[in-house]
Amino acid sequence: MVKSLAPLFDLQNIARVLITGNGLAGQDILSVSQFDRETLSYIFGRAREMREMVKKIGGADLLKGYVLTCLFYEPSTRTSASFIAAMERLGGSVIPITQGVQFSSVSKGETLADTIRTLEQYSDVIVLRHPDIGSAQTAADYADIPIINAGDGTGEHPTQALLDLFTIREELGTVDGLKVAMVGDLRYGRTVHSLTKLLVQYDVSLRFVSPEILRMPMVIMNEIIDAGMDVRETHDVADVIENADVLYVTRVQKERFTDLAQYEEVKDQYEITPEIMEKAKDKMIVLHPLPRVGEIHYAVDHDPRAAYFRQVKNGMYIRMALLAGVLGKA
Q: Closest Cα partner for 170 from 28, 253, 52, 62?
């Protein structure tokens, strides 16, 4: 249930809570491993307040005078746009280096460290997407302002995992007790890596559906097994569709393959169609981090269980909560 609007619009009160009560002020957001359930509950509560604020008044001046730099070495639509929208909804400003890194000093051979140390001179927080695992940590090592990881290669995508988990909670009312099936590219998919690591904190059953060459990495499987979770792997969506509470679908990522012949073999292996959805529960949801390239039929969009565009909108609310949290300012 959304909290009363009276305390919501007392912006000084919101700022005071952000500064003193969340543990996020001044922190980097690099990995889902830094979040426990108490912190997750806090972030989700703030995201609900941000959602209600946007619905009622559009935004606020909570971050007026603060500057976000979006530094994206890889293409992005939803992540970059939602961070920009989140900052602007809260009254802040944005330096967008999203689709144009090739036109920056990176094209001259500038290192990530020097780029970060330059941009922090103009910024209060930097959101970074980079093709190399560990790049966000490298940036954080050099920066004196918060770094938010918007995807480091095939490593993690923590803010996506937060919005995914938030969507599950908002759509189904709980996380504990659910059966979560993940379908598609589980080897290279940083979104499923991060979401799985978050779900280890909950009482859920996991089902992984992928081609053999795109199975979940063993290091993550070992985490799941060590946590004593119920987990199974299969190659067929039919094995999971009837019992799944959450069907999390991912695209096969062509850009991660060095052998395009392998990509061609597996790219069209899965498609969620209305016929498949007929076998699913009446109360379940289909999620997708997007973009999709054929793994969910467009006819499924009209199914009320298709939650992926509601998932997209939740991304802005989560990122509003995170930006306000790490900046800790009114």
A: 52
Contacts for 290 with CB less than 8 Å, ≥ 6 apart: 77, 78, 308, 312
In 117-199, DSSP assigns E strands to 125-130, 147-152, 179-183
- Is 130 designated active site? no
pLDDT per residue as tens digits for the range 266-317: 666 789 999 999 999 999 999 999 998 889 999 999 999 999 999 999 999 9
pLDDT digits (tens, 9 = 90+) for 160-189: 999 999 999 999 999 999 999 999 989 888
Angle separating helix axes 11-21 and 37-57, nearest 10 degrees: 160
Strand partners, 69: 95, 126
CA 159/CA 228 separation, integer angstroms:
26
Rounded distance between C-alpha atoms, residue 253 and residue 75, angstroms: 13
In angstroms, rounded to a whole number, what is the distance separating the alpha carbons of residues 5 and 137?
Answer: 38
User: Which tokens sit at 20?
Assistant: 């003193």
Secondary structure class of 179 (helix, strand, coil): strand
- Which of 46, 48, 157, 319 is catalytic? The answer is 157
Asked if 111 is an active-site residue, the reply is: no
Helix (H, G, I), strand (E, B) or coil at 275: helix
Residue 43: predicted pLDDT: 95
Annotated active-site residue 179? The verdict is no
User: For the chain, which domains are there?
Assistant: 5-156+313-327 (3.40.50.1370), 158-312 (3.40.50.1370)
Catalytic residue among 78, 117, 215, 281: 78
pTM, whole model, 2 decimals? Answer: 0.88
159 counts as catalytic: no
* 297 in catalytic set: no
Cis link prior to 291 (omega < 30° from 0)?
A: yes
